[in-house]
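Running co-folding for magnesium ion.
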Amino acid sequence: MLDLLIHSIYTQKEIFLRELISNASDALDKRYYLTLSDENQSFDRDSFQIRLAADQQARTLTVADTGVGMTKEELESNLGTIARSGSLDFKESAEPAEGVDIIGQFGVGFYAAFMVAKTVTVRSRSANGGPAHEWRSEGPDGYTVKEIGDMEPGTEIVLLLKDNTEEEKYDEFLEAHRLSAIVKKYSDFIKYPIRMSRTRSRLKEGSESEYEDYTEDETLNSMVPIWRKNKNELTDEDYERFYTDKRFGFDKPLRHAHVTVDGAVSYTALLYIPEKAPFDFYTREYEKGLELYTSGVLIMQKCPDLLPDYFSFVKGLVDSADLSLNISREMLQHDRQLRLIAKRIQERVKSELLSMLKNDREKYAGFFESFGRQLKYGVYSDWGANKDVLQDLLLFSSSDGDKPVTLEEYAGRMKPEQKNIYYAAGDSVEKLKKLPQTELLSDKGIEILYFTDDVDEFAVKMLGAYQEKPFKNVSDGDLEVEGEPKAETAEEDKAMFSAMKEKLSGGVIDVRASARLKSHPCCLATEGGVSIEMEKVLSSMPGAAGVKAEKVLEINAGHAVFTALKAAYAEDEEKFSAYTRLLYNQALLIDGLSVEDPVAFANDICALF
Ligand code: ADP
Ligand code: MG
């Protein structure tokens, strides 16, 4: 089963080395942190290193570090868990979605070692004291741990490589040039030296033809973290690889920004805009944040204070020499420098998004598919405090073509006499296109925004207006279409409408002649602040379930149905009642609401035959 896990997850075997090196680097970070925060710990900076050693005869590859090390308990709980169950249970019960890296997700990167090794031996001693132990495992069958003789704090991982097969030559992981290339490829930015002693040959001193072998320590990585490198030396692939190596996401980032700022506060930031929302993005479990470094030392894995909620999708890191290493989480929140950095990052992300919107519309539309809802929530939350930052980043479907539009584009092509920004809300664009309430507006060539996300209407209610043009729902009770007379109920029809209103009491607050319909017989309009779509959303929220839209039944006085209705009103009380119910129930169905009594509705229809 472990086999299944390791084979299905990593197609490239070579990345086992990346995993082991990244663990070693984490362990060195922890040790470094320890020396800074604990007076009893002292350690010479020069001894922070990761060593690779290959032994051809024994077929072993060793990865050793002078990091924090592990106690017996830590060996068991950190390395032993997966062999017992945990992540493996998960793997058994549910196939992970394509592209989901469960090793990364469940923190079992260490197990990638079993892709190439038949036996893994881990010797370790904790920098916090205690004896050294040896953990050994052949994979699926569990592991053993025993105490061993003294060693320096740190960890040594020995891989006994698998035997070569027809297709797979595991020997390659014993070759210095291959190891060196893998390190360069995946671990170049690791900030501790990754050393290996290499044997080369050279001309013997004093000789012109005689060669001799010599061995020399070589540092395989450049150690400069990518964000400290010069932008000009880096390619898009370098940035993308870093994103992947860091496990910022399983997608390919849409865009990155590498920013270095010197001034009131100095920092370097590397920011990524992902393409796809992580599976838990729209849940409470999702944790936003950027990695926070001070002078290259990681002080927090996910610093939430660097990002506003509405940009919670941004990944990356910030490195600033202006922050103290021993700063606590609580202190960070109030740190003036950090707040300044956060403000700049927010501005930068916004300008990156605007530039993507302007210069690469297609890409932006893809981004908006993934994260648009978060931006709209951002407009709505905190009582609209951030609406000015966000309003120009929004996209909505519209009656003008298939591509989503910005508010600026909409406003820019409004008719000269047009007073409002019109929108229709419902569960799909297809349905909204056919909505009777849009009929007259569409006929006059007025563009209508189509809202299909729950949050849309709440967000524009918070905006109120854009460029001083108010937002108006096409179903609004007091809608007045530009250049059209307001519908007046003829004196002679007033009594009939109030009779209808009486029959529908509890369902509608009024029945009126409609000015917004042309070919359709009837529709619902709403009065007050709550629209029908808002009622639907609110009714699914525990605290707001009682909130109802105030509905008005509108009848098209130019429609044949109206003539029949009048005749029934004059002659046949029962028929009039049935017609009234039918029209009301139809209007409910059109707006995606359910009829109160479906059986009665069906019987009313049958009575027409
Ligand atoms: P992750 O690195 O995502 O936590 P891994 O499977 O790679 O998951 O490692 C599991 C844990 O084992 C690490 O979190 C760490 O606590 C411990 N570990 C692994 N390698 C080392 C090491 N070289 N030194 C100290 N601890 C280590
Ligand atoms: Mg790891």
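Result summary
The first strand starts at residue 50 and ends at 55.
The chain has a mean pLDDT of 89.
Job closed.
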